[in-house]
Each structure stands twice: as C-alpha cells, then as structure tokens.
Amino acid sequence: MRDVAALAKVSTKTVSRVINDLPGAGPEVVERVRAAARTLGYRPNLTASSLRRSDRRSATIGVLFEDLSNPFDSALLRAVEDRARQGGVLVLAGSSEDDHSMQRELLLSLSARRVDGVVVMAVGGHQDALQQERDRGTPMVLVDRPPTFGGTDCVTTTNRDSSRDAVLQLASLGHRDIAFLGDRRTLWTSQERYTGYLEGLAQAGLTLREELVRTDLHGADLAEVAATELLDLAKPPTALFTAQNLVTVGAMRVLRARRLQHRVALIGFDDFPLADMLEPGITVVRQDVPGIGRKAAELIFARIDGDTSPPVHAVVPASIVRRGSGEITPSAD
Amino acid sequence: MRDVAALAKVSTKTVSRVINDLPGAGPEVVERVRAAARTLGYRPNLTASSLRRSDRRSATIGVLFEDLSNPFDSALLRAVEDRARQGGVLVLAGSSEDDHSMQRELLLSLSARRVDGVVVMAVGGHQDALQQERDRGTPMVLVDRPPTFGGTDCVTTTNRDSSRDAVLQLASLGHRDIAFLGDRRTLWTSQERYTGYLEGLAQAGLTLREELVRTDLHGADLAEVAATELLDLAKPPTALFTAQNLVTVGAMRVLRARRLQHRVALIGFDDFPLADMLEPGITVVRQDVPGIGRKAAELIFARIDGDTSPPVHAVVPASIVRRGSGEITPSAD
DNA sequence: TCCTCCTACGTCAACGTTGACGTAACCGAG
DNA sequence: CTCGGTTACGTCAACGTTGACGTAGGAGGA
User: Fold this and answer.
1) Contact A88/B78, CB-based, under 8 Å?
2) Nearest Cα residue in chain A from B61
3) In this complex, do A274 and B249 lie within 8 Å of one another by their Cβ atoms?
C-alpha cells in the first residue's frame, strides 16, 4: 500500500479511500491510484483492515460439520456457502468427526481467526465448548441437532414426526413386526427418530418388540451385522425402519444378499443419490437439505448483523418419497 | 491481551511468551498468566499475530473447487482438510461453479485474507486469473486438471490410459460399436478421456463412428437426451463409455427405462456411491480420490514450507472396478 | 472584501501482536 | 571479589490499514 501511495504520489490514506470507494478523492487521483495498484499488483490485506476497522468484521464464517465428505454435510455446506458468497463472506470449513476434542480445537482455531459467526453440527453429548464460545459472544447457529444450552438459534428437521409417519405407513400396509435400526444413541436425531418410531407403533396399536430395536450402528458395517441378526430371529421383522443414511445402505446390502429386497419392506431416514435407481427403489424420508442450509445461513447472518430477537428453533419439514421398498406388504409365509 | 497482562501484573510481551510457550517466563509467572487468561476468556488473535510475525503465515489455505456438494469434490476437500489439520491449518473453501468470474472473485477473496496457498480445480478455458495469482508468489497446486501455464504443481489421474483400457476391455468382449458420452469439451479431463477412447478404438482395430460420439453433456439431463438419441440410431451402439459421473447416471436411467441394462454394456469414468448395489453393478474407472487429495495437500504444504524444486505433475493411477455392466457381451440380434 | 463552507487531500495514532533489544538480578568460575 | 554468562523479565516499534482530525485552497454569499 505504501508502494502504491508512493507511485501515485499520494498518502496511504488516499489509497485507502480509493480502494474502498470512499468519497474525498478527485477523479484524477483515483485514476492514478488505480493505475499504480494495477502495475504493482497490489492486493488489500483484509486481515489488517479488519484489525483496524471499527466493525471488526473478518467477512469469514466458520462451518463445523461432522464429515464434509458425507453427502448430507457437503450439501449443507454448499447451501451455506452460496448464501455467504452473496455477502462477500468466505467459509472456513472443518470436520469434527463427531469427536469432542476435535470440535473444541477447531472451534478455538476459528475463534483465533476471528470469524464473524459459526454454523455447527454439534457433537453428541455435552456441549461445553460450544456454550463457552457462544458465551463469549460469537454468533452461533446449530444445525441438525439442537443446543443443550439456551440462547442459540438452531435448525432441524421433523425427525420425530416423519419417523412416526414412516412407521404408520408400514403399519397401514399390515406390518406388525417393524424393526428399528439407529445410529449412536448419543445423537439427538437418533433419539428423536426412535421416539417417532415408538409413537408410530403406539398410534398403530402395535406392541414394541425390544429385540427388534438395534441402536449405536455407526457406519454401514455395523448396520449389516445388526440387520443379519434381525433376519436370523425366529420371528424376523417384515419391515425395517433404518434411521440413518449409512444404516439404510447396510440393511439394503443384507436384504439383497439374501434376496429379500422384494419381500421385506424398508424405509430409510435421509435420502441418498441413486435411491431411485435400485430395484426396488428405496422409500426414504427426505430432508430438505438446501432449505436447512439456507435457513441456517439466514439466521447466522441476521445475528451477525445485530439481530437480537429471541433465539429461534426453525424446523424444516421432511417428506416421505415413495419408491417401492416402503410399499411392500408383509409376506404370506 | 492487555487485560490479561494487567491482571497477571506482567507486560503484554510476557503474556505473548506464555501463550506461545516460549522460554523466558518463570513457572510462577506462567501460572499467573494462564489463570488470568482463563478467567478473562482470552483468545489469541491469530490475524494480528500473523500481521506482525516475520513468517507472515495465516495458517489457512484456500480450496477452490467446482462444486463442493459434488461427491468427488467433497471427498477431495476432506482429504486436503485432514492433512491440513495435522499442521494446525484451516481450510477456506469455495465453489467456482466452473465460472471464470466466480473463480476470479474467490481467488481475490482468498488473496485478501492472505492464505498461505491454494488448491484449485481450474475452470476450463483460459487461466489468466490463476496465473496472475501464481505470479504474485502464492503457492498453488492444481487438481484434476493441469495448468496451461508453467511453474505450478498439479495432480491428476490416468484419464487417458484408463479410458483406453476401458475401451479395450469392451472391444475384447466383441463390442465394435462403442459410444462415447463426454462432459464439456473445454475441460481437460474430457479431452483426455476422449483421446483415450480414440486410442482404445485404434489399438483394437475399430473404426470411429462419429455419430457415436456425444460431448458437452453437462449434467445428467443432457446425458439422458444424448443416450436416448444414440439408442434410437439405426445401428445403435452395443456398449457405452460414459466419461463422467453424472453422464453415467443419465445413461443408466435411459438403459433402465428401456430395459436394456442387461443388454448394452456400460463403463463409466468416476465411481459413485451404490454403484455396486445396482442391477447390474456398474463397472467404473475409479479414481483414487483420497490419494489425489493427500498428494495435493502434500505438495502445497511442501511449497509453503519453501520447497523450490521444479514443479511436479503427479499422476495418481485409477483402476477399473468390474461389477457387471462392463462385462456384458454384444447381443446376438 | 471578508467570512463561511465545502472539497480534497494529509497527519497521526491505534487495532493486537511480536521481533529486536535493553536491563536487572543472579550464578559460577577464576 | 570481579567478570562473563544466563535467566527473567520489560520497552519500543512495527506489521497494513483506517478512524479522527487537521489544513489548504477554492467557491459562494453578504
């Protein structure tokens, strides 16, 4: 900047004025400064600028999800990024791997870089680190899972209601033995979906068979094992409700291996690519991922812009997409 | 920091020493400062620090891909992020949408934040903005597509050779009418894969039927149209080589709609989730995405650490994954 | 003519941090 | 007891930028 000022024969302050399109610079001077900046390849230093400016904005937000390579997470990231770009804001992204210390470290890293706000998919269990950061005044929005502390916005989907609807659909087809396969019980979404499952059973007048409930299935491999065990029961389930992405995939593999994919009904929570191309197509509860991302972005930017209205818990509705696997009736045998 | 110093009754310099674990602070003072920092909720300001420090590092790199919600891009991002985290480096991520002005703007944004380096999936066509940034001294690694200018590292896969091998495999099964369906011709990868297709035909002694070559299919919808037209030809192809992810999906849809999925052979470039669960399983050329990401990260961090050896073009081998659709022999009729 | 107001600049200090350097106290060796 | 060296601090300025304020010159009105 000093070099630009010297070359244009003005003060650095005037260069600043030109770069930021502030008034108080004559047209001739503006041109001289612009030319000098071009020839020197000058790039303003936003970090120095935000250090000095009164608003202290870094024009950067943090996004802290579980696994950026997961389709759900990356779709969410993309939605947030699109909204951010409209305001000239960039996104610092990190994967917490559902690990508390990782989440904590990443949060500190973001804090050290003075991000204007963070969008977090909270790790299950306690949220001490999140609350601490929130209490320091960092605008924060939780996605997918609500905060266990107050004063923070959050965006989730209709986990419980949609799970209940899925179970009710299966029950209405005549299924009486509906299994539940869920992810880690520490995750709020898992709990909600399980509660929805229970509500569905109750509303349909079905009794819970505890041996048909399998939880803590983190990843497709564990889900495969659980599905195998369920189908090996003396009285196996005639329908499966799989409460997460990868769990659905694991269950599908087992059904296909046993050629049961047309005999055992399956509804999964979370859509995934190509679910419609399988034989049969997989019926799923589809979350409105871009909708969730947009809402989260909208909330975080409102808070950054000083919105002090009471915290919001936005719920973005999910819907059942019928593709075949969830419309299978119980086998005669 | 001043507040911490005041509370601990030391100078800010001593606080700095304690925070950075530098020698020159007595154990008692260290404890006082740590306690003061804790009670005040002090967080170091990395931007101010990097402004003043001699090395000028922001401990942040930029990642500029085409679409972060694309599985290929997000897997790559994840691999880079994992490597970055090991060095305490965070990732600023952006989607260029294959648009020159977007890429340019994001690049300027990254530059303004003084990232230590950038990993870029270059937009097709000219690379003026990239070269300009590179010439300013920003360490840069291109992934998936090589630079059109010199002096820059890059990581790609065996686009040409693997495409040739795919075509040779189809030819060896007796296919003589093998169609090519490709993405935008401005993309280097498309060109390479097309060249591999031509090499494969030539090596197998097959003549090129130009009406079987369809390019500029950006997205599954365009691919569907093209596949439909190909199958409507008087002498339709008995095998398809689809040179990109979404193109493969589009072609698959058409084959299934016409119940030809067991009669027309299909090999796709790029793997995708659940390709093994379809009927038949889809034979693909699988890139080693984590390998590419790791290599790109390794290169960028080496450059950031001052490696001045000649630029490298790393080629990470892809391999054919046989799942059924690429092993179909030509129909009798 | 003189005073006021506005425009187009410049000067200075400060944002939070650290490199360079200074200094006082203490330690061990000769 | 002195002297060189080490340890444990402190002081000062600077990184690149901008808010606050100062000033010179010209335009315009009484």
Assistant:
1) no
2) A92
3) yes
Q: Residue A71: count other Cβ atoms within 10 Å of its Cβ.
A: 19
User: What's the CATH code of the domain at B12?
Assistant: 1.10.260.40
Residue B218 has pLDDT above 70, yes or no: yes
- What is the Cα–Cα distance from B239 to B267, expressed in whole angstroms? 8
Contact by Cβ (8 Å): B217, B253: no
What's the pLDDT tens digit per position in A201-246?
999 999 999 999 999 999 899 999 999 999 999 999 999 999 998 9
Residue span of the structural domain in which A171 resides: 159-288+320-327
Residue in A45, A94, A132 closest to B90 by CB = A94
User: Are B17 and B85 within one domain?
Assistant: no
Same domain, B279 and B182: yes
Residue lying closest to nucleotide C8, CA to C1': A24
Which of B47, B138, B253 to mutate to probe the A interface, most A CBs <10 Å? B47
Provide the CA A11 to C1' D22 distance, Å, integer. Answer: 15
Chain A CB contacts of B103 under 8 Å are: none
Instruction: Give me the pLDDT at residue A182, please.
Output: 97
Q: Could A108 and B279 be called an inter-chain contact, meaning their C-beta atoms sit closer than 8 Å?
A: no
Q: Are A161 and A185 in contact (CB under 8 A)?
A: no
**Domain containing B243 — which CATH number?**
3.40.50.2300
**If contacts are CB pairs under 8 Å, which of residues 95-114 in chain A contact chain B?**
95, 106, 108-114
The closest of A67, A65, A64 to A246, measured between CA atoms, is A67
Predicted confidence (pLDDT) at residue B115 exceeds the cutoff of 70: yes
Q: How many domains does chain A have?
A: 3
- pLDDT band at residue B332, thresholds of 50, 70 and 90? low
List, as one string, the DSSP characters of B282-316. PEEEE--HHHHHHHHHHHHHHHHTT--SPP-EEEE
Record: contact A60-B113, CB cut-off 8 A: yes
Rounded to whole angstroms, the Cα distance separating B212 from B199 reads 15
B-chain residue closest to A278, CA distance = B278
- For residue A281, the model assigns a pLDDT of 94
Q: What is the pLDDT of residue A279?
A: 86
Burial class of residue A213 in the structure, from the number of CB atoms within 10 Å of its CB (0-12 exposed, 13-18 middle, 19+ buried): middle
